[in-house]
Design goal:
The protein has about 375 residues and is an alpha/beta fold. Helices cover about 50% and strands about 15% of the residues. A three-stranded parallel β-sheet has the order 2-1-3. A three-stranded mixed β-sheet has the order 5-9-11, with no helix packed on it. It has a three-stranded parallel β-sheet with strand order 7-6-8, covered by helices on one side. The N terminus is likely disordered.
């Protein structure tokens, strides 16, 4: 029988009607298959404590950005109850609180558990070898760093899964009572920092004290310290550093690459559905990009306010001081390598990654400063 021949008394559907009916049927079938994957019931809420105060604090805001992304990605089925510093435990206790289940999650930096194992500083506040925070995060995920990070967690007894976000720009050398350009200018100076940077700057002859962020400005006001760093123009402004100093030095190797660590209780994480586990992980990647974009806009705007409204003098840290910082790093890393084989194992991994990756990156990057000055003039004299 010809495929075009009609049978008397029987209506043959048109091709258009046929495909329309098939589309409806297919959509219904797809919906039926997809239905079991939709999460029903009450949303699951995880308690997170940050190491930052609420209110006008950009780091707490960034933790909130991550929490919102988790909620948005899960359609509201997975929520994070974000609490500010000290609401449940002290900052130094966040790692243990997450490990024991007192908290489901935390938001801080690895330098805050440096006291348990100096290797913690290598995951955010270690030597540069030419790397910025973005390349250190690349080493973490593609250069063997994650496995070493997990070994470090095990060594200190932390029972959590960790994720990272926000590749921080190099941190300023900080706030001083005068413009410092020579190593002799900072020798004997009482200075605040944290992590391995304490060892590096001590090697430079500075008298280093570790203080929480909220205590930095009062300590400078009372003379307990003479100089200090925290992190960036926005955070430093929020602490009121411009009220105790008018000399701000940008760019330093003491902490040239750092990022936030998000510890998640291992039992809690393993109890989540695969989809929610993926959201916890991938929201960190999303926040990584968003936070960095936000940081560039906010940090530059607040630097402008410091210069124009608060009459702060802004300098680039001198090459003499930077070179001495690198010598300090060489000494500190050498000393730790001799006494701790595991520490050396991490350092060797970073060096191997940096030697290859940064060879490409540094040779491939044009001189962006040259392009900037071609348009705007001498960078030190540009008004923003």
């Amino acid at each position: 029988m010809s495929k075009n021949k009609k049978i008397k008394g029987v209506k043959t559907p048109s091709r258009r009607k046929f495909f329309k009916a098939a589309a409806v049927t297919g959509a219904a079938a797809a919906a039926t298959v997809a239905m079991p994957n939709i999460a029903f019931g009450a949303p699951k809420t995880l308690k997170m404590q940050a190491a930052w105060p609420s209110g006008a604090n950009i780091f707490f805001e960034m933790a909130g950005d991550y929490a919102k992304m988790v909620s948005d990605m899960s359609g509201g089925q997975l929520k994070i109850d974000l609490q500010p510093v000290g609401s449940v435990v002290k900052t130094g206790e966040i790692g243990q609180a997450v490990s024991s289940g007192v908290l489901d999650m935390g938001h801080w930096v690895t330098a805050y558990w440096y006291g348990k194992n100096a290797a913690a500083s290598l995951f955010g506040t270690g030597p540069s070898y030419g790397m910025s925070s973005q390349e250190v995060m690349g080493w973490m995920e593609y250069g063997g760093g994650r496995k070493l990070y997990e070994e470090t967690l095990s060594k200190v007894g932390f029972d959590y899964v960790g994720f990272f976000h926000m590749p921080m720009p190099a941190q300023p050398f900080g706030w001083f009572k005068k413009n410092v350009t020579k190593v002799s200018d900072v020798k004997g100076m009482k200075y605040r920092t944290v992590g391995l940077a304490t060892n590096v700057l001590t090697a430079m002859g500075m008298v280093v004290r570790q203080l929480p962020g909220g205590e930095i400005q009062p300590a400078m006001k009372t003379g307990l310290i003479e100089a200090a760093e925290f992190n960036n123009p926005t955070s430093d402004s929020q602490f009121g550093m411009q009220d105790v100093s008018k000399h701000y030095h940008l760019g330093s190797f003491h902490q040239s690459q750092e990022m936030f660590e998000i510890p998640v209780n291992k039992k809690t994480f393993n109890g989540l559905s695969p989809a929610h586990q993926a959201i916890i992980k991938n929201a960190a990647y999303a926040a990584n990009t968003d936070n960095y974009f936000k940081a560039l806009v906010r940090y530059s705007a607040d630097l402008s306010k410091l210069m124009n409204q608060h009459k702060v003098n802004v300098y680039q840290t001198s090459d003499e001081i930077l070179a001495q910082q690198l010598k300090g790093w060489d000494k500190v890393i050498g000393d730790f390598n001799k006494k701790d084989p595991f520490f050396k194992k991490i350092v060797d991994s970073q060096k191997k990654y940096a030697k290859r990756v940064m060879k490409y990156l540094l040779m491939n990057q044009p001189n962006y400063k040259l392009a900037y000055e071609n348009e705007f003039g001498n960078i030190a004299k540009v008004k923003i």
